[in-house]
Every structure is written in C-alpha cells, then in structure tokens.
Fold this sequence. Notes:
Structural class of chain B: mainly alpha
Number of domains of chain A: 2
Helix content of chain A: 55-70%
Number of strands of chain B: 0
Mean pLDDT of chain A: 85
Distance between the termini of chain B: 137 Å
CATH architecture of the largest domain in chain A: Orthogonal Bundle
Oligomer: heterodimer
Largest interface: A-B, 39 and 27 residues
Number of domains of chain B: 1
Strand content of chain B: under 5%
Mean pLDDT of chain B: 82
Radius of gyration of chain A: 17 Å
Distance between the termini of chain A: 46 Å
Strand content of chain A: under 5%
Shape of chain B: rod-shaped
Structural class of chain A: mainly alpha
CATH class of the largest domain in chain A: Mainly Alpha
CATH topology of the largest domain in chain A: Rna Polymerase Sigma Factor, Chain: A
Number of strands of chain A: 0
Number of helices of chain B: 4
Number of helices of chain A: 8
CATH superfamily of the largest domain in chain A: RNA polymerase sigma factor, region 2, helix turn helix motif
Low-confidence stretches of chain A: none
Order of helices and strands of chain B: HHHH
Amino acid sequence: xxxxxxxxxxxxxxxxxxxxxxxxxxxxxxxxxxxxxxxxxxxxxxxxxxxxxxxxxxxxxxxxxxxxxxxxxxxxxxxxxxxxxxxxxxxxxxxxxxxxxxxxxxxxxxxxxxxxxxxxxxxxxxxxxxxxxxxxxxxxxxxxxxxxxxxxxxxxxxxxxxxxxxxxxxx
Amino acid sequence: xxxxxxxxxxxxxxxxxxxxxxxxxxxxxxxxxxxxxxxxxxxxxxxxxxxxxxxxxxxxxxxxxxxxxxxxxxxxxxxxxxxxxxxxxxxxxxxxx
Lengths: 171, 97
C-alpha cells in the first residue's frame, strides 16, 4: 500500500490500514524508544502510546511532512512526556566490561547503558543516526530543529560517549 | 574508544524488534478507543434527539398568546348586556311579572 493510500485509510480509521501501518513501523519505533528509554523500562508502553496517538491525531495530519517524519516526531514527544513524568535513569556499567564483537547481548547492554548517560535529544539523535541510519535532515525534522543543530548534537553525543566509555574502561 | 567502535556498539541494537503480539495489543487498544468514541457519539446523538423531540413537541402544542386572553371593551359590554337580559328574562327575577 502506498503512503497516500495508507494515509487515506488511516484517516478513515480503517483497521486494515492500521495493521499495515503498525507492521511497517513497529520495529523501528520500538527500537528507538527502547534505545532512548530502555534504561527506564516501559519502552513497549510508550511505543503503544505512539501508535494510539497516531489513531487519535491522524485527522490533524496535514501531509506537509511525510507520514514517517510525523510518526517519529510523535515518538520523540511521547518519550519527552515520559521523561517529564518519570525520572530519567542512567544505567551504571559494571567495571571493566570487555567489548566483545561476538557477544551481541553484551554489546546491546553496553550500548543502552552508554545511551542512558546522554541528554534526551542526544539520545534520539544518536539512536536515529547509528541504529536507524537516518540522515541529518530526517533527524532534524523529527527533533524539530535544523540540520546544523543536529550535527552539533551528534558531535557532542559522540564526545560524551567516548568519555563515558573510557570512564568505564571499555576496551 | 574510537567512533567506529561506538557505531559497532550501536549496531547491536539493530537486532531489537518489537515484542511478540505488539501489533495485536495496539489494535486491541485502538478498537477499544474506537468503541469509546462511538458510544460517546451515540450518547450525544441520543441526547440531541431527545432535546429536539421535546422542543418540537412543545412547539407543536398551540401556544396561548396574551392577545387571545384579552377581550375588547365592546365584547365585555356585550357580555354584560346579555347576562343582564338573561337574568331578567328569568320569571323568578322579573321586576314586573
């Protein structure tokens, strides 16, 4: 189903359109939220809220941006709301974690812990860039900022991550 | 830690997927929200229909305007005369039987 058709279906509140829409974006949205709020838990609940917000607000979607950009913006806002209500948590890393290329689960834990040391906007920018492979423009649209600002956010995030990694002696 | 190592760490997150049954849970919540919206709309429309029914029932009933109650002076005089005539027409009250 093409995007225009999908939007029409969503605006009609058609269940099949929602099934296709959720199927198309659920992993990406969940991945971003899990990466950003993973340390605090509740990633599934936030991801569900994002899709329910789409159901409620699709009538107001003016199609000036793409559906995915709009969806990621909702995800960012929902996470921000979540952090406003719940305290942001930072996961402490165990000392001297060894960076093993083969141990995917361990790498996931390290990545989540490192992300949890970043401010929210840096978490989003870093996740969207390194995990989802978004362009700076797409990140800028989702974060409602400029491409130049995104470059600065990403640079700062990388510097912070390097420092944090060194602090915990990740080799 | 070099940048490419950070990217490598983050790439481990690419394997993260939405939990099983995520789609069904969301659709279930959406359907419940839909039902809530429909039942609310239904209640509103019933309330509106009831208000309209009451309004039209009241409107259809013949209204009584003040002009219907007021009687002109000539009408009052006419009524008085007829009452007096009726009174004296009665045998019992005849002045000159």
